[in-house]
Structure formats: structure tokens, C-alpha cells
Amino acid sequence: MITRVIDIRTNEKEALSEAARLIKDGEVVGIPTETVYGLAANALDGEAVRKIYIAKGRPSDNPLIVHISDMSELAPLVREIPEKVRLMAEKFWPGPLTMIMKKSDLIPDVTSGGLDTVAVRMPKSEYARKIIKACGLPLAAPSANLSGSPSPTNARYVFGDMDGRVPLIIDGGGCEIGVESTVITFAAEKPTLLRPGGVTVEQIEALIGEIDIASAVLNKLKDGETAASPGMKYKHYAPSADITIVKGSFEKFVDFVKDKDCFVLCFEGEEQNFENAVTYGRADDGLSEANRLFDALRELDERGAKTVYARCPEISGVGLAVYNRLIRSAGFKIKEV
Ligand code: AMP
Ligand code: MG
């Protein structure tokens, strides 16, 4: 399969008409969103959705997020819209927030990974919403990486993973957020955070009160434990390099890595202290870290890093999302100094 790339910033008309033509025809197209790039197909067509799993090499029990462009598109996809979902949608949609509800019969089992619930998001990216509108369909779209690899935040990385696997990639430039959406379920008794992202726990609790946080957000699943969110049980975001998070002060970190043959994943302004360093944002700015993390992981591989020691982010606000991705890419290896 030949993979075409169309830049929607310079060629919007063709990008929209080609993406819509292919998706309506049951094909898979790489699309930009404000979180990370997605691999989009008609969420209501089980055969089309199956092609996403094949392109990514994704396990079939790991459900996909369904993307809509307007609030009116939600009701047909779910059994009912809980009051708290309405509140959340008013405040955070369009944006990096995915909400899980009981699914309607319109959603095929492949889209929901066999669960009786469906995850829905309205992206903030104008390009993403224009593509959904042009299709006139809800779009199932997981991150556009090969399963297990870091999520792509630009079209070049999508092409690297998906060349020959999808007919079209829409290039919309860089992603504003850089990590995947916050995922929260309203299908449980108490709203429960399954994955942290650009909309923070602090923002959500200010609006709807206390929520639960699934233990898999910060901890490795124990053998035999079932994940509330199937995606959490798989190896994820992992570059080829072997990463260890080092918790402790900057001085102790410097002391720990000196004389070691390694790369360092550190914050901006710290890199001059190390021979081989890649930075991921500023220590006091979780959003800048989110923005850089996946690119930094891919950069480490491009530079041939074998052993990497990473500075630990603040674990609050958007930093919770950064930490959640980093511990998975490190295979939960943490060293206290
Ligand atoms: P991705 O599509 O790669 O951003 O991953 C989507 C994430 O949302 C994965 O971790 C899924 O397991 C999770 N997810 C999607 N739908 C559901 C659902 N119905 N119930 C629980 N988790 C879900
Ligand atoms: Mg993913």
C-alpha cells in the first residue's frame, strides 16, 4: 500500500475531501488532534475498525476512543448521558478529555473491545473536528503509533510507523498537548480516572467533586489483576532504550549519573551538566513536559541511547499525566537517590 501525506495547513480542501472519501469507504487515515496523532476509521463499521487494530498491531481487547465534532452526536452513541457528563462536556469539550458511558447498540463490539461501554471525546483541534464533520461519522481513533511505541506528535513519526499500513496521513503540524487525553469513566459507581491527561484531576474535582483514581494510573498492575482500562495492562510508550526514573534532588541526580555510560533525560537548562542529554520541558511546567515527552523518547532512540536515567517530574496537574507515561516507558523502574 502506498501511503500519501497531505498537509491540511496548505491544502485543506483536498485533505478534507480525500480523508472523508477514504474513511467513508471503510479505510483508515492518520489524522492530527491536539493530544497526539490518531488513526481514524468509521466507529460504526466493525470491518473498518478492525483495520485500525491490524495497522497498529493492537490487542483486540483494548478499546478505542470515539471522536465527535458536536454535542448532538453524543446521544446516539450511548444509552444515557449522565448529568455529570453534561457538566464536564460544557466545561472541557472540545478538549483533551475522554468520557466513558454505557454504549448504545450502534457501537460495534470491535470498537469497544467487547465491553458494554464506549469512550467518547470531542477534540479541540479544528482540523480533527473538520475531518469528522467532512465524514459525517463518529471516528474511532487510537494513537497513530505501532502498539507499544511512544505516541506520535507529528506527521513524520506517524509516517515512520504507518508507511505502507494506511493509505493516507493528514499532516496538521505539531500537537498542542502532546500526550493522550484524560480518560474518566462515568459507567462506574463513582467517576473514576483511568488515564491522566491534559484536563487535570484538580480541574475535574473543582467541577464535579471528588473522583476515584484507578490504581493502575500510578502503579504497576499485579499479576492476575484486571485493569479498569484494558490499555493499562500493556507495555506502552516504550523506546528501545532502557529507561530508569531517578527520584531525588538535582544535585543527587548529577552525582548518581557521573561516571556512568548513559544518556540523561532531563529538564531544560540542566543539559549542560551531562555529556549525552535530551530534555523534556521545564521542571516547573507540566504542560511543556507533556509537549516534549514522546518526542524526547523517540529522539533518544534516534541518537542510539542504550541506558537512560530520567529526571522525575512533579506528580500533580499535567505532571501526573507525564509521570504516568514516563513510568510505563521505564517499565516501572524507579531509583531513589
Ligand atoms: P488510545 O486510543 O491509544 O489513546 O487509548 C485509549 C485508552 O482508553 C486505552 O487505555 C483504553 O483501554 C481506554 N478505553 C477506551 N475505551 C474504554 C472503555 N470503554 N472502558 C475502559 N477504558 C477504555
Ligand atoms: Mg495509544
**Major beta sheet, strand line-up:** 1-8-2-3-7-4-6-5-9-10-11
Helical content (DSSP H or I, runs of 4+) = 25-40%
Number of strands: 16
User: Which stretches are poorly predicted, pLDDT < 50 over at least 5 residues?
Assistant: none
Order of helices and strands: EHEEHEHEEHEHEEEHEEHEEHEHE
What's the pLDDT, averaged over the residues? 95
Which term fits the overall shape? globular
Structural class: alpha/beta
- Largest β-sheet summary: 11 strands, mixed
Radius of gyration: 20 Å
Oligomeric state as shown: single chain
Distance between the termini: 50 Å
Bound ligands: adenosine monophosphate, magnesium ion
Number of helices: 9
Strand content: 15-25%
Q: Could you please describe the fold and organization of this structure?
A:
By secondary structure, the protein is of the alpha/beta class. The protein has nine helices and 16 strands. Strands 1-8-2-3-7-4-6-5-9-10-11 form an eleven-stranded mixed β-sheet, with helices on both faces. Strands 14-13-15-12-16 form a five-stranded parallel β-sheet, with helices on both faces. A hairpin with a 6-residue loop joins strand 2 (29-31) and strand 3. Helix 1 (12-24) packs across helix 4 (126-135) and helix 8 packs parallel to helix 9 (318-329). It is globular and about 60 Å long. Adenosine monophosphate binds at residues 62-65, 100, 112, 115, 117-119, 142-143, 180, 183, 194-195, 229-232.
